[in-house]
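Lecture notes, structural biology module. Today: joint structure prediction for complexes of two components.
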Amino acid sequence: MDLLIDSFVSAILLVVSLDAEMIAIVGVSIKVSLTSTLFASIIGIPLGFAIAFGDAPGKRWMITILNTLLALPTVVIGLFVYTFISRRGVFGPFDLLYTQRAIIIGQLILIIPVVTAFTISAISRIDERYRKTAMTLGADRIQTAWVVFREARFGIGAAVIAAFGRVISEVGISMMLGGNIRGFTRTMTTAMALEYDKGSFTLAIALGLVLLSFSFGMNMLFHFFQGRSRL
Amino acid sequence: MTVYHLSGIRKIYGSRTVLDIPAMKIEKNRIYALLGPNGAGKTTLLNILGFLETPSAGKIDFREKPVRFSASALQALRRDVVMVDQHPILFTTTVFKNLEFGLKIRKIVPKQRKRIIEESLELVGMRDFITAPAHTLSGGETQRVALARALALKPEVFLCDEPTSSTDIENQAIIINLLRQINATRHITIIFTTHDRTQAAGIAHKTLVLNHGKLVAANYENIFSVLVTHNGNGHVRCRLNHDVSLSATLPATYSGNGRTRIFIDPHQIISESGVRNPESEIKPQKSSNKLQGKVHQIIRENKDIRMVVDSGVWLTMIMSESVYRQNRPSVGDTVDCYIPPEAIHTIR
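The predicted structure, tokenised, for the full assembly:
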């Protein structure tokens, strides 16, 4: 019990003192997660919108596949990407392994289905009358699509928040593709795993507190967007 | 001028034909009421007239030109025809931006847009709500803003799907007056669906009745062309034909002798003394507002019973089921119909 209390107090002091190593780790995590979320949004939102708004054949199958991909374990993605970017892999010559870009690629695979599936869900919840109203007011197909997109904006915002929350807390991809290199690919979750292995809990708990704060913030934002989407 | 000319229009969903109209014409600057029970095809017809749905078969001429059912052609036509839903939905933004949407699409300059929006909201009595978030409005207010949003676009044809069904009595009166006003002042052709025959008769120049997707013969129920004479005691006599004349209390503002049109509210006609012997002689009584007639048709309409009686003139009365059960007249029976003077209204 003393160990927990001592570690917890030291961790709080570490957070309050804005320890340089901790800040560097948090910085890497945020940079990598924001980048992967940005690219996943650029790909996933239009894809989800196209699937939900259009009448493409095989729409149900696409949704089923996306829902399946939501449950993809991070270590499977790590292993999958590794086979492509390792020295003997197809993309070996690009020297991607153990870089932040490798983590971003893996995280993209993880969260594109999240953003896409949540966007489909957000668009599908929008009342059909919005589309009809836009059309009768003279809107063309693109203007009608924009109306539907605007009405679904809070739901789509929630999709992006959910995706960010997923990548900032994942460990498998960051560990397998980033290699946990200090000051370069060491993220909050990989650093916590390492500190645990070393039996040094102070930094691990401090990072855990930061991660929990992030998760809390993400959830607050998520609920804000979810709430607004139901207005 | 004919705005719409429909020929051989059919709409089929799967194996079910929901609309089958061999021919129909809609004249410019007129108000049309589209009556019919639920599932009769009223909304489908309105969607087709609004170029929101394409028919499965048939031909439509709009402004005497054939309509091509391509997406771009229909989108161009939708600029002249605006539809307001039975339960309209407003975009989740301000009332101003809701009205601005269609004007922006039509590339109206901002200064002009603002003026049109203010005028349109003024017309529906919602000027004070211009900056209000649209989702905070009540049902009646939403309906009025939706009407303003459509009217701001100055359409040639205005389609309304049951415009008063989800509003209270106050808002119903506002909406009905508004429809009359825009038809009279802006010369907009209006087609609206309703279940309310009285409302249809009150404002429409012509009533169309749909049943099972087909247009059925639509005569003006309880609307008569009459010869009016003042009898000196504040009442007037309305002579419908040689045998039938009725005493009425027409408004004080009504001063004319001569021909006019009256509407007899079917809810106010009383089937007074019940069923008589079918073989008894039918005698329209000249001195009172009591007419004898034979029951021609009895139909259940939602919770009411609608009875058509041949009493020298075709008379429709609507009564509750409990009132009907008191005498239970059958088709062919002879009944007395009492028409209270206050049930008679003049029609403009």
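Point to remember: Residues 26 and 44 of chain A are 26 Å apart (CA to CA).
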